[in-house]
Amino acid sequence: MKKPVSLNPVYFVLLVLFFSACGRGGSDFGSWAPIDPQIVQDQDDMTWDDYKPIPGINWADSVRPDREFRMALVAVDFDDQPFVITQPKESDLFGNPQIDPVPREDVPQFYADFWLKPSEVNHGQTINGYWMEQSRGGFGITVLEPFGPYRMPRNHWAYGLNEHRQQNSTPDGSVARYRMERDVDSLWRADMGDIKDNYDAILRIYAGYDETGVWQEFGEMKFLSKDDIPAEWGNPNPDMPRWIPTRYVEWTSWKAGQMQWGLSSIRQGENSGTITHELGHFAFRTGDNANNPYVEPYRRVGAGTWDMMDRGCFNGPGGPHMRWVVPPTMGAAMPAGLMLRNRLKNEFLTEDQVMTLSREGLAASGLAVARITARAVEPLENEWAGVIVRLDGEEPHDRTPVEDPAVNPLSQGLVPWDFYSLEVIQRIGYDSFTPDNGVLLAKNKDREGRNGGPNQFNCFNWVIDAHPEDINMVDYVKPDGSEVMRTIADYRQLNDALFHAGTESGSEFEFIDEPNELHFYIADIDRNDDGVLSYTVAVRSLRGDGPHNRGVDINAPSTGKVNRNGYIEFEITNTGIKAPVAEGIYPSDTGSGTDWDVFRLEAETDNPVCSVKLLNELATVRNGDTIVVPVYIIAGQDVTGDINVTLRAVSESDVSVSATALQSVKL
Question: Widest CA span of the chain, in angstroms?
Answer without folding.
Answer: 93
